[in-house]
Amino acid sequence: MAMATALMVVALVAVIAGFSPATGRSPLAAELHRLRQIYIDAQWSLVASTYPEALRPSVGVTRVVSGWDWLRSRVRCLRAAGFAAEVTAGGSSYTVSSTVGQTPLEAAITNYSCAASFASIGALSQYLSRQHLAALRSYDLGFVRPCLLFAGQPSPLPSGQATLVAGDSLGRRWNPFEQVWLGGLSDSAITYFEARCPPVPPWFAVAR
After folding, report:
1. Where are the domains of the chain?
2. Strand arrangement, sheet containing 206-207
3. Nearest Cα residue to 124 out of 47, 67, 195
4. pLDDT tens-digit readout, 38-89
5. E strands along 17-66, which residues?
6. Global pTM?
7. Which residues touch 207 (CB under 8 Å, ≥6 apart)?
C-alpha cells in the first residue's frame, strides 16, 4: 500500500509539472506483426545486400528488449549458436568471431537470426504511429519514471512536454532509464532495476 501511494504521489507531481501522460493507443496484434515484419525485413536486407544467394531462416518470435539489454541479448544468442561474442566499447557495441571455422555467410545468417529474435524498443519505436508513441510515452511517464524515482534512481525530464513530443517525431524518444544506464551501475544492478521497473510495456514485449 505504501509503495502504491508513493507512486501515485510521484505521478501527480509529473502531471502538475506539465508532464501528464498523453492519450494514446497500444498497437493491436496485427499492427505489431506489421511492425515486426518491417524490422526483420530491414535486418535481412543487410545480409542480402552482401550475400544475395543466402537463404533466409524463419524466426517465429521477436522479443522486444531495452536498448541496454539489446546488445547483451544479441551476444547471448550468438554464443548459444556457437560463435565467440563479446560486448565492447563500454556496452555500446559487440564483436563476433568464428569458433569452429564458420564462414562469413554463416556468421551473417546467424547474426540476422539473433537480430530478428531480439529487437530494441528504440529500433521498433521508429515505426510506431503517433498514437502508439503516445501510449509508449504514457507508460514511460506514468509507470517507468515514477517507479525509478521511488527506487531512488535518477530520471530527469526534458524541459517540457512539447520537447517530449518533438523528440518522438524526430526519432529521439526520451528514455527514463538513460541516467540509470549511464550511472556506472553494475550489470546485475541494472538488470535488477529493469526487472523492477520494466522499460518495455507488456503490450510491446513480444511480436510474432
Report:
1. 29-125
2. 118-120, 62-65, 206-207
3. 67
4. 999 999 999 999 999 999 999 989 999 999 999 999 999 999 999 999 988 7
5. 62-65
6. 0.80
7. 32, 33, 35, 36, 61, 62, 64, 119, 124
